[in-house]
Amino acid sequence: MRDVLEGAAWSRTVPGALRDVLDAVTHPTQLATLAAATDPRLPRDRELVALLEPSWPETAELALVGCENTIASWAVHLHGFHADVLALDLRAVLSALEGATASGVLGRSKRQAAALEPLRPFAPAGAVLDAPTTGPVLQDLLK
Description:
Mean pLDDT: 85
Number of helices: 8
């Protein structure tokens, strides 16, 4: 009973759309909802009202599917690299690789390897990091 009284007192302090929903509680079977609404872990106002909508489960599922589709579409662009590779300054890595590739023949492969070294911690296991294969990957990561 204390929860119900606390819920009723709290509901009088809530503004906006949530207040409208709580004011609509008219039947004793709805009192549990009113008591549960006082839980401080719940979202407030419009967010809670949205959760109470009958369409929320379907809307939430569609949003999750959209997120999963976006992640899947971006996974292709990662070419097996860990997503944290995107935190690197990839333009600087590409610029260093291009500079190393345009340099003189002697020592070119070592300069290219040095330019690609920042990618190594994020590369897929067993990946070969060389200019011919990694240059296009860098271009794709920058899209």
